[in-house]
Amino acid sequence: MSDAEVPLQPKKKGLTRRQKRSLSRGVQYVVFVAAVIAFAVAADWDRLKNQFAQGSIAREMFPEVITLALKNTVLYTVSGFVVGLVLGMVIALMRLSSVGPYRWLAGVYIEIFRGLPALLIFIFIGVAVPLAFPGTEIPGGTYGKVALALGLVAAAYMAETIRAGIQAVPKGQMEAARSLGFSPARAMISIIIPQAFRIILPPLTNELVLLFKDSSLVLFLGVTLEERELSKFGRDLASQTANSTPILVAGLCYLLITIPLGFVVRRMEAKAQEAVK
Predict the structure, then answer these.
(1) From CA 140, how far away is CA 76, in angstroms rounded?
(2) Among 165, 130, 160, which Cα is nearest to 148's?
(3) I need a surface site. Which of 12, 143, 201, 213 has the fewest CB within 10 A?
(4) Are the C-beta atoms of 214 and 155 separated by less than 8 Å?
(5) What is the dihedral of CA 242, 247, 248, 254, to 10 degrees?
């Protein structure tokens, strides 16, 4: 049989790249649905309801969980954020300074307070400071201590964020401001920093969300009944009732703040990306 008479073999067709991706996604969906069904079937919902969803206990938490615990949590968070923002701005400018000792001090601060757990900072403020300076009182009592502790932690992260934002502003902005007669300090305050904050607003808002959760560490400062935040409030009621429903309600109150803030962060990031395009 000649070569011309040899029948052609049909080519084997495999899956295309798109078909492989579709198949992979389908398998992942099936695995996810199967895991959810397995969890729903295996869980003892009656025991979960009795331990975490007692309506009578949840109703007894209101309105104090909002008017007291949530209010204190918001106050602690906002005050710590303000202290951290001011201190972080100072440290960021020190990090960008042409003076060597300023840069060195800022770098040491950032490395130390980013490396230490926030819990240790709270213990330091609540225990070490009174021992080191007998008779010294931090203004604002517990609120002042929490604001200082949260601010010290947040400032280390905010300083790096602000520094990155300042460096992201085109150098031509400073040169243009100087050509108009602005001093370096005035150009930084009036021209550079406002532009930097438009760039770093999303990560700063994300830092606010993290501080909101870190405010639960206030319990290590020894707060009174009127100074309790959400976590302390929920833990106390859970101990009194021998039930975990107060902890679940406190967690839902956290979500009332963190979910909207997270949505705001995503929206700001999307707008920032659109502006770049």
Answers:
(1) 11
(2) 130
(3) 12
(4) no
(5) 170
